[in-house]
Amino acid sequence: MPFINERLMEQAESRPPPVTPGARASRFQFEPDQVMARLSARIVGQDPVLADLEAMLTRIKADISDPERPLAVHLFVGPTGVGKTETVRLLAEALHGRADALCRVDMNTLAQEHYAAALIGAPPGYVGSKEGHTLLDEERLRGTFRKPGVVLFDEIEKADVRVIRALMNVLDHGRLALSAGTRELDFRNSLIFMTSNLGAREAQTRLARYRRGWRRWLALRPTATERIPEQAVREYFDPEFINRIDRIHYFQPLDPQRADGLLEMELDRLADRLQRRDVSLSWQPAARSRFRAGQDIRYGARDLRRRLRNELEPKVAAAMFSHPDIHRFLVRTTGGTLEVVPVMETDPRDGLRHTT
Ligand SMILES: Nc1ncnc2c1ncn2[C@@H]1O[C@H](COP(=O)(O)OP(=O)(O)O)[C@@H](O)[C@H]1O
Ligand SMILES: [Mg+2]
């Protein structure tokens, strides 16, 4: 009975919000600080961006935004693997309490000539042009009375000019007319995010040069990594497009000092997955710093995850199968190679004992 359930939910949604004494009433049901706490726990090194997002959520919650525009329009610029997509994904998840709450359009994987058709629908009369069919998931982008929808146009610089033109209208009036002409998508209750890595390569090259050269101190200044992408964005997009964006955030490349926090975070997630198999992992400090040192920060966090998957997880898996009755394992290095060995029992001297 999905139909009835949906109707019931709709009714619940339009009921007046519960009144909490001492709190300002709002149709929106989310707590900006709680939402952001979830993000801070998972995204490292992008604190200024997160602080801005919290301010944005607070503004939305006050429900004082122009009702004829999207609730927010933000562009995230920065190199690959620094958390642009992940931030939006986590935000949608934290707001809606569901991992699949995000309406994401990946400009990169769409076939070039199908861009416009896939987004705004094929013109009437075309094969497959059903009643305004579109890539966009209407329910997710619209959100609900209590929660804003979250839309992500990922890697926007790959988009066809026709798509950008259609987007301009969305950013302006919060509406997108599908080409069948009978239907319109409504973005007025949406948070719109776009990402781009324009200028990232140039910034990275410049940064690497600074780090080596006598002007090393320049690499520490955020302007070194912001000015170049900023210029690239201004050269690439028309001023009319840029003018419709509330805020452009420049994501910082993940600097080596962050490697520790990132590794910590990824290892916590691995620990969660292992726990489901009733297995725990401890690290010999030397093994940990060795693993961390092998990280190529240029590829952001993706490189770390790939290395965990390729270099560590197979060893953990092999150890799990060779020692089916053991629940604790130790990661250590021997002659520079990472090893995963079972921990047999506790030794009072170092808290660990293992076979070799
Ligand atoms: N700043 C970060 N903090 C924590 N994890 C990150 C960060 N940046 C990237 N990651 C991890 O790396 C992966 C790729 O990040 P993603 O957001 O997709 O990169 P991009 O900036 O290219 O969109 C994600 O799965 C994410 O968990
Ligand atoms: Mg991305």
From TrEMBL:
Keyword annotations for this protein, in alphabetical order, are:
ATP-binding, Chaperone, Nucleotide-binding
Q: Which residues form the AAA+ ATPase domain?
A: 70-191
Keyword presence, Lipoprotein: no
- Region of interest (Disordered), ranges: 1-25
Tell me which residues make up the Clp ATPase C-terminal domain. Answer: 254-340
This protein's source sits in the domain of life called Bacteria
Q: Which PANTHER family match?
A: ATP-DEPENDENT CLP PROTEASE, HEAT SHOCK PROTEIN 104
Q: What is this protein called?
A: ATPase
Species name:
Alcanivorax xiamenensis
